[in-house]
C-alpha cells in the first residue's frame, strides 16, 4: 500500500496540471468539442493579437513579475546577510512567520488602504501639510504597476525569508560567518561570498515559484494593478467570465501566451543567475572585504521592517475600516465606530466561512496524509529514491494557475464533475500538497533516525513505530504543516472561481469580488475574514502540542517545526 | 525468553562494504553472558556492523556472511523480529512518553493485563533503584537516571543479544564507571551475548572480556 502513495501523489499533482494544460492548448488552436469546434485554426491567436493594449498587458506581467521577484530576493538576501544570528534576525523571524499566513488578497487590500490617495499615509501627510482633500494622483492602479510590485514584494518576503531560514543550517552558516569575520570580512560581504553560493540551490525552487506567481497573479493584480489595460492574467479571467462563449478560444490562446511569458521570465532569471554566479566567482576571490557595512545593514533592516510593517499596518487599517462609522478626509480615525455592518453580514459571513472550510478541511487532510505517507515510505524503504521525482510535486507552483485552471475545468466537465465539491477540492489539493510537503519534509528528515531504530529493536512493528513514535514526536510539525495547508486553500482565488464555476463563495472569492465596488467597510470585513481561518490554524498548531505535552519538557526541543 | 539452545551470537565471516570499500571483516562468536569489545577509530565501520546485526543498516551497504543468534539465522529478518537490543551513546528515551511509558513501550505484548504490565515496569524501575519514577517526564531525569532507564527499556523487550554503541561516551567521568558496572552486571546476569563498540580503552578494560581492535 504505502509503496504506491508516492506515485498516487505525483498523479494527483501532475495529472491536473497536464490535463489542464491540454484542455487549454486545444481550444487555443480552435478545438473545443464541447462547443462543437473540432477543426484546428489560428483564429484565436489572430483575435488575441488584435486586442488593444496587448503589448502593455504582456509587459506588465513580464517586467513587473521579474522586478517584484528580484526586489523580494534582494531584500531577503540582504537582510539575512546583514543580520543572521542576531536578535533582530530572530525578532524578524517571529514577525514574518504569522505574516506568511496572511492571504495575498488581504495583504493587497491592506496595502491599498495604506497607500491610496485617501489612505492612512496620505492622511498623516495631510495633517501636517493642511490638505483638505486627497491628492488627485493614481497611486494604486498606477500605470507602471508599482503598487502591484509593492504588494507582491510585501507578501513574498516572508515566504522567501522562511525558505532561506530552513536552508541556512545545511550550510553551517553560523560557523561560516565566524570564519569570514575572523578573516576580516564585513558581515554582508562574508555572507554573500561564502554562504549564499551554498544555500542558493536550495531556495532556487521557491524563488522560481515566486517568479511564476508574480508573473501570472490574478487576485493581487485585480486589487492593485493598472486596469487600462490590466496585466494579461486579469484580462484572461475577464474573457473567460464573458457570457460570449466564443471568447473562450481567445482566452485559451492568451493562457498559453501567459505560460510562455512565465517560461520566458524563468529563462531570463536563470540567465541572470548564471551571469551573477560567473561574476561572483571573480568577486569572491578578489579579497575585497567591505568592512564598513553599517549603513547597508541599516538599510537592509529598514527595508525588511517596512515590508513587514506595511502588511501589519494594512491589517490594522482593514480592521478600522470594518468598524468605521463616518470617516472624512483627512481625519486619522473615524468619528464613530459601529458593528452594524458586521451584524448585517453575519449570515453571509457564516456561510462563506463554512464553504471555505468545506473545501479546505478535506484538501488539507488529504494533503497531510499523502505527504506523511510519502515521507514514511522514504524512511521504510531506506531510499531517498524518488527524491528527484518528488521535485515534480512542485510543478503546480511553477505553472501559472490561469494557464491550466480553465483547461482543468473543461476536463472536469468531461468527467461530469463540473461545479462539484470534489473537483474544487482536487483543484485546491494541487496547491496545498506542495506547501505541506515543503513544510513537513524538513522536520521529518531532521528527526533522529535512531528513535525509529531503537523502537524497532525493542520489537515494535514499523506501523507501531510510525503511530506511536514518529507521529507523536512530529505532532507540532504535522499541525504546522496542516495550518500552512489551510492558509493556502483559504487564499485560493482562481481555482475556486474557475473550477467551482462561481458556485462556491469562499471568503477569498467574496473579498476579491468586492474590489471593484470600492466599499471600504465591506472590504475591511471580508479582508479580515480571510485572516481568521489561517490564524486560527496556526494558533491551534501552537496550542494543541503545548497542552498535549505540557508535562513533557523534552518535546520542546523536538517541536521546533 | 525462548527456551531454545543458547549458543550466543555468531558472526560468520561477515564483510561489510560500501561503494566497493571494505569497512569491516570479522569472524566472531560471543557466548551468553560474554562481553566482547570492538575498538577502532571512527569511520572504521563499527556502527555499521551493529546496524547490520540488528537489521537497520541501509541497503546501500553490501554485506556477506551470516549472523546467527541462538541457532537462528538473523539475515533477512526484520529488525523487530530479531530480538537484538541496542543502546546508543544517546539514551534516546522517547520525549513524548513518561518514564513508565517508555518502559511499557518495550514490554512485549504477550504480557497481558494493565496491572500486570504496570507491575512489571515498576519492578524494573525498582531494580534500577528508581522506585516511584513511573509517571516522571524523562526530560527531568539526571544523566545517570536516563542511562539506567534506557538499559531497563532494552532489557524489558526480552532481547537475546545486546549491542552497545559507545554507550558511555556522553556520561560524566564520575558517572561512567557506575553506569558501566550497572550495564555489564545486568548483561552477565541475563546471560546476554554482548557486543560493545567503543574508542575508549577503559570501556574494554572494565568489561573484562576479549578486546578486538579493528583498523
Quickly list its features.
heterodimer, A: 561 residues, mainly alpha, MetI-like fold, 0% strand, B: 215 residues, alpha/beta, Rossmann fold, 5-stranded parallel beta sheet, 4-stranded antiparallel beta sheet, 6 helices, globular
What does this structure look like?
The complex is a heterodimer of chains A (561) and B (215). Chain A is an all-alpha fold. Chain A has two domains: 1-39 and 339-561, MetI-like fold (Orthogonal Bundle); 42-337, MetI-like (MetI-like fold, Orthogonal Bundle), CATH 1.10.3720.10. Chain A contains 25 helices and no strands. With 215 residues, chain B is α/β, with parallel strands linked by helices. Chain B has a domain at 9-83 and 159-213: Rossmann fold, CATH 3.40.50. In chain B, the strands form two sheets. Chain B has a five-stranded parallel beta sheet, sandwiched between helices. Chain B has a four-stranded antiparallel beta sheet with strand order 2-1-4-5, covered by helices on one side. In chain B, helix 2 runs parallel beside helix 4 and helix 4 packs parallel to helix 5. The N and C termini of chain B lie far apart (36 Å). The chains are: A mainly alpha (561), B alpha/beta (215). At the A-B interface, helix 19, helix 20 and helix 25 of A face strand 6 of B.
Amino acid at each position: 500500500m504505502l509503496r504506491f502513495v508516492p506515485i498516487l501523489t505525483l498523479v494527483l499533482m501532475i495529472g491536473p496540471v497536464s490535463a489542464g494544460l491540454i484542455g487549454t492548448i486545444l481550444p487555443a488552436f480552435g478545438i473545443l468539442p464541447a462547443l462543437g469546434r473540432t477543426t484546428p485554426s489560428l483564429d484565436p491567436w489572430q483575435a488575441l493579437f488584435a486586442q488593444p493594449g496587448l503589448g502593455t498587458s504582456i509587459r506588465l506581467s513580464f517586467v513587473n513579475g521579474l522586478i517584484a521577484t528580484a526586489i523580494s530576493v534582494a531584500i531577503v538576501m540582504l537582510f539575512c546577510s546583514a543580520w543572521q544570528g542576531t536578535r533582530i534576525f530572530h525578532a524578524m523571524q517571529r514577525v514574518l512567520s504569522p505574516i506568511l499566513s496572511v492571504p495575498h488578497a488581504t495583504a493587497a487590500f491592506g496595502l491599498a488602504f495604506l497607500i491610496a490617495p485617501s489612505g492612512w499615509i496620505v492622511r498623516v501627510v495631510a495633517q501636517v501639510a493642511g490638505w483638505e482633500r486627497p491628492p488627485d494622483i493614481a497611486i494604486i492602479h498606477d500605470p507602471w504597476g508599482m503598487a502591484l510590485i509593492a504588494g507582491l514584494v510585501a507578501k513574498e518576503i516572508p515566504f522567501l525569508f522562511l525558505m532561506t531560514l530552513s536552508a541556512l543550517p545545511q550550510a553551517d552558516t553560523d560557523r561560516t560567518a565566524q570564519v569570514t569575520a575572523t578573516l576580516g570580512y564585513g558581515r554582508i560581504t562574508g555572507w554573500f561570498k561564502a554562504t549564499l553560493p551554498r544555500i542558493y540551490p536550495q531556495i532556487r525552487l521557491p524563488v522560481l515559484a515566486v517568479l511564476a506567481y508574480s508573473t501570472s497573479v490574478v487576485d493581487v493584480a485585480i486589487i492593485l494593478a493598472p486596469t487600462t489595460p490590466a496585466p494579461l492574467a486579469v484580462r484572461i479571467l475577464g474573457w473567460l467570465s464573458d457570457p460570449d462563449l466564443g471568447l473562450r478560444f481567445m482566452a485559451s490562446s492568451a493562457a498559453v501566451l501567459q505560460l510562455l511569458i512565465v517560461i520566458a521570465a524563468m529563462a531570463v532569471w536563470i540567465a541572470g543567475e548564471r551571469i551573477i554566479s560567473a561574476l561572483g566567482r571573480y568577486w569572491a576571490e578578489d579579497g575585497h572585504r567591505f568592512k564598513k557595512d553599517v549603513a547597508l545593514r541599516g538599510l537592509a533592516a529598514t527595508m525588511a521592517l517596512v515590508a513587514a510593517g506595511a502588511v501589519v499596518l494594512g491589517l490594522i487599517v482593514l480592521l478600522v475600516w470594518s468598524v468605521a462609522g463616518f470617516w472624512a478626509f483627512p481625519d486619522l480615525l473615524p468619528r464613530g465606530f459601529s458593528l452594524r455592518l458586521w451584524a448585517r453580514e453575519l449570515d453571509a459571513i457564516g456561510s462563506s466561512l463554512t464553504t471555505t472550510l468545506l473545501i479546505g478541511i478535506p484538501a488539507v487532510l488529504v494533503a497531510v496524509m499523502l505527504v506523511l505517507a510519502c515521507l514514511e515510505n522514504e524512511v521504510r524503504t531506506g531510499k531517498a529514491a524518488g527524491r528527484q521525482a518528488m521535485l515534480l510535486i512542485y510543478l503546480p507552483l511553477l505553472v501559472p494557475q490561469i494557464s491550466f485552471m480553465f483547461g482543468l475545468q473543461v476536463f472536469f466537465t468531461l468527467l461530469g464533475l463540473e461545479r462539484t465539491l470534489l473537483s474544487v477540492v482536487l483543484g485546491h489539493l494541487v496547491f496545498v500538497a506542495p506547501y505541506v510537503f515543503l513544510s513537513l519534509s524538513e522536520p521529518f528528515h531532521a528527526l533522529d533516525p535512531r528513535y525509529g531504530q531503537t523502537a524497532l529493536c525493542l520489537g515494535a512493528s514499523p506501523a507501531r513505530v510510525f503511530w506511536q513514535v514518529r507521529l507523536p514526536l512530529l505532532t507540532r510539525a504535522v499541525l504546522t504543516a496542516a495550518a500552512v495547508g489551510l492558509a493556502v486553500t483559504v487564499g485560493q482565488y482562481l481555482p475556486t472561481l474557475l473550477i467551482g464555476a462561481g458556485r462556491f463563495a469562499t471568503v477569498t472569492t467574496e473579498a476579491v469580488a468586492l474590489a471593484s465596488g470600492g466599499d471600504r467597510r465591506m472590504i475591511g470585513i471580508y479582508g479580515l475574514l480571510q485572516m481568521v481561518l489561517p490564524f486560527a490554524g496556526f494558533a491551534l498548531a501552537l496550542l494543541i502540542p503545548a497542552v498535549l505535552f505540557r508535562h513533557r519538557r523534552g518535546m520542546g526541543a523536538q517541536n521546533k517545526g | 525468553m525462548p527456551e531454545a539452545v543458547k549458543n550466543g551470537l555468531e558472526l560468520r565471516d561477515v564483510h561489510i562494504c560500501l561503494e566497493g570499500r571494505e569497512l569491516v571483516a570479522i569472524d566472531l562468536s560471543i557466548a551468553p553472558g560474554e562481553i566482547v569489545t570492538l575498538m577502532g577509530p571512527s569511520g572504521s565501520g563499527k556502527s555499521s556492523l551493529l546496524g547490520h546485526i540488528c537489521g537497520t543498516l541501509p541497503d546501500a551497504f553490501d554485506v556477506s556472511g551470516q549472523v546467527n543468534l541462538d541457532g537462528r539465522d538473523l539475515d533477512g529478518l526484520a529488525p523487530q523480529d530479531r530480538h537484538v537490543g541496542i543502546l546508543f551513546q544517546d539514551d534516546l528515551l522517547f520525549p513524548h512518553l513518561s518514564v513508565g511509558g517508555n518502559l511499557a513501550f518495550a514490554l512485549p505484548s504477550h504480557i497481558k493485563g494493565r496491572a500486570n504490565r504496570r507491575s512489571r515496569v515498576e519492578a524494573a524501575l525498582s531494580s534500577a533503584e528508581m522506585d516511584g519514577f513511573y509517571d516522571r517526564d524523562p526530560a527531568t531525569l539526571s544523566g545517570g537516571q536516563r542511562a539506567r532507564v534506557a538499559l531497563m527499556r532494552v532489557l524489558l523487550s526480552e532481547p537475546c543479544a545486546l549491542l552497545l554503541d559507545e554507550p558511555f561516551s556522553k556520561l560524566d567521568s564520575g558517572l561512567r564507571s557506575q553506569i558501566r558496572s550497572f550495564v555489564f552486571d545486568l548483561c552477565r546476569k541475563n546471560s546476554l551475548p554482548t557486543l560493545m563498540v567503543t574508542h575508549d580503552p577503559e570501556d574494554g578494560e572494565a568489561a573484562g572480556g576479549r578486546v578486538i581492535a579493528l583498523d
